[in-house]
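Structure in, sequence out. Go:
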């Protein structure tokens, strides 16, 4: 099931929550190229520029700019769109923002997920739902061990804990309301994603871009922290393959699956910046800053063995290639190249790698 089936997605009705965000924007473009009919629902983008503004996908079923945690918003959308599948990405996804506004983070992430599940239960039942959480849902003792899907959930910071709460809620709904098998619900956990079109605060590549634009080195709070870095298309490929399996009711598909890079691509923060600077801003790099007052894990390592064993999913871009693709995207953006073209070109290049094993 490793390769995407464009015939399968053609005409498929897909509801994406969070389509104005970084991953949601890339996903909407990819599904558009596959011929899916998409409706997006999300809050307005929080950054300027934003991928949503500079490279809008064609949403055949329209969009709703609204807060999904508000009662009734999703009920109306489900009733009119009648999606085959819901891919739930909408979230407050920044760790530091979760420390600054924990109530907002818990409300957005937990209640937002509850609204999705309640709309499935009471308004219109799609055939499948994919809930996107994070690799940070695991109880992390900072021992550098690779987390697998059976490891205990945890979360020290409000963002991580809110996503672990989401997973507990999903499991409760699965057993309480959807246990008869008339709706398949999966949970996807991905590593740290990079790629063109991300301008979020307190994210590594966007922070570097802002510093480099001023001719300055980027300040790193934890340069030796190790994370599972991957290009955004790697994670989205996993989401789409998982969604296919959920829609077709494939047997023996796990309910939770990790999507992370190969072990050699778990890099320190400073390694990522050094590679990115070499490709994007030679002569610049990083300097160590004051450590954050907020607790951050030093090691976060993910095992994706289950994704390979059950879905045939494997990462196709190593960390060096992911960084090169990211730097090329931003460099061409700065030179005025159309952003929709940049997104579609990289999707096409990645699809070629999936089908041919190389750019073909």
């Amino acid at each position: 099931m490793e390769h995407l089936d464009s015939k399968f997605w053609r005409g498929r009705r897909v509801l994406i929550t969070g389509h104005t965000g970084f991953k949601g924007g890339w996903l909407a473009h990819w599904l558009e190229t596959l011929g899916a009919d998409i409706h997006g629902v999300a809050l307005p983008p929080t950054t300027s520029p934003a991928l949503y503004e500079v490279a809008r996908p064609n949403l055949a079923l329209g969009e709703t700019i609204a807060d999904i945690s508000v009662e009734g918003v999703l009920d109306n959308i489900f009733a009119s769109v009648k999606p085959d599948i819901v891919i739930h990405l909408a979230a407050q996804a920044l760790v530091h923002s979760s420390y600054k506004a924990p109530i907002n983070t818990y409300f957005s992430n937990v209640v937002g997920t509850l609204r999705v599940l309640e709309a499935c239960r009471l308004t219109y039942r799609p055939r499948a739902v994919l809930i996107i959480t994070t690799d940070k849902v695991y109880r992390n003792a900072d021992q550098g061990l690779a987390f697998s899907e059976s490891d205990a959930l945890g979360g020290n910071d409000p963002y991580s804990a809110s996503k672990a709460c989401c997973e507990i809620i999903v499991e409760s709904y699965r057993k309480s309301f959807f246990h008869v098998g008339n709706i398949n619900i999966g949970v996807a956990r991905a590593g740290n994603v990079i790629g063109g079109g991300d301008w979020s605060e307190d994210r590594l590549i966007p922070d570097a871009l802002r510093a480099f634009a001023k001719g300055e080195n980027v300040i790193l709070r934890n340069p030796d922290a190790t994370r599972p870095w991957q290009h955004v298309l790697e994670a989205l490929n996993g989401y789409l393959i998982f969604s296919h399996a959920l829609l077709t009711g494939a047997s023996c598909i796990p309910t939770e699956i990790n999507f992370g890079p190969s072990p050699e691509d778990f890099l320190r923060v400073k390694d990522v910046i050094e590679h990115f600077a070499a490709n994007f801003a030679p002569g610049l790099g990083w300097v160590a800053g004051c450590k954050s007052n907020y607790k951050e894990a030093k090691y976060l390592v993910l095992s994706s063995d289950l994704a390979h064993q059950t879905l045939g999913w494997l990462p196709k871009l190593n960390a060096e290639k992911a960084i090169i693709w990211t730097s090329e995207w931003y460099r061409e953006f700065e030179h005025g190249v159309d952003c929709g073209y940049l997104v579609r070109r990289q999707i096409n290049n990645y699809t070629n790698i999936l089908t041919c094993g190389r750019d073909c």
